[in-house]
Structure prediction request, 349 residues.
Amino acid sequence: MTDSAPAPFARVTRAWYVACASSELEDLPIARTLLGTPLVLFRGPDGKPAALLDRCAHRNVPLSLGRRVDGRLECGYHGWQYAEDGRCVKVPGLCGEAGKPARAVPRFAAMEQDAFVWVYASPDSDPTEGPFALPTLGDGSVEVRRVVEVESPLTMTLENALDVPHTAVLHRGLFRGGREPRRIKVRVTRTAGGLQAEYLGEARPEGLAAKILSPSGGVVTHFDRFILPSIAQVEYRLGMEAHFMVTSICTPLEDFRTRLHAVISFRTRLPGWLVKLFLNPVAMRIFRQDAVILKAQAGALRRWGGEHYSSTAIDVLGLQIARLLRLAETGETGPGSPEEWAREIDLEV
Ligand code: FES
Ligand SMILES: [Fe+2]
Prediction:
C-alpha cells in the first residue's frame, strides 16, 4: 500500500479491515501491520481509536515505541507529540518558531464496531461507508471469538475458509467423512457484497462437531459467503435445533501473512457453556490443521514463484474470490451481471 512493487496478490486498499480486538487497545499504543504498512494504534483524548503511520516524521523512529500523553501520541525518542489526525502538535524544547511549519504523519481512518478496532487501508481518506457489521443469530445465541494468524495470502486463506472438499480429508473425522458420499447441488450467486454458495440436499455431517450440535439430526441448510474484501462466512442450520455461523474476518498483514478473527455464533438446545466445552477443542484443532496446510501451500507458492493451479468445478469459490479481489483493487466493486457469476455444480460430499 505504500511503495508498490508489482503485487503477486491483489491489495484492496479502499476498504476497512480489523486491526485488533477493542480489548487489545488500552492505554499503550500498539503496532500493527496492514497490507505491508506499519501502523500505530492509540486512543485519542475521547478514548476513540486512532491510527497513524508507525514512523515519526522527525527521525523515523516507530511511534509505537512511544506513549500516550493526554490522548496524544508521544514519540519515545525526542518526544514529538501527535494528535489523532496525525499533526505534530508539540516539539519539546523548541522555543517559538516563525510560520508554524506543518509537520505530520499520514493518518488512517479508524473506528470501533462490534468490539473490533477497524482501520481504513488508504491513508488520509474519509470513507463514507462504515465497516462490515456482524450479524446476530438472535436471542439465546452464544458467541465465541478466536484469533489465528496464518502464513498464507489473503486469497488462499479465504478459499480455505469456504472450501468444502478439503474438510473430509484434512479434517477427517472432525467435520465430514466416515460415510457413503452423497450427491448434492451447489448454487453460486453474485451478491451485492461478494459471492454466495448455497448447498442443496446435504445430509447431516457425521463428524463429532455435528453430533454435538444437533443430536437428533434433520435437514441441513448450508450457505458459504464471501464478503468483499476479506470476510468468509459459513452458515449452517441443522434441523430446527441448531443454527451455526462462523464469520472469519481476515486481515491481510502482508502478502503472505493473514490474521483471521473468527466469530463463531451458535444457537442450540444444549446450554451454551456445554457446547463451548466440546466445540472449543474441535474448532481449535480444525484451525490448526488449516494453518499447517496453508503454510505449506504458501511455501510452495513462493518456491515456484506464483500460482500454477489446476481447478475443477468443485473448487467452488476460490478462483472467483481471486477475480473479485483483483477487480476491487482497481475500485470495481459493483455486483456485475449476475449471469456471469451464477453457476450450478453437482458434487459429492
Ligand atoms: S524521532 Fe520521533 S521525536 Fe525524534
Ligand atoms: Fe479447513
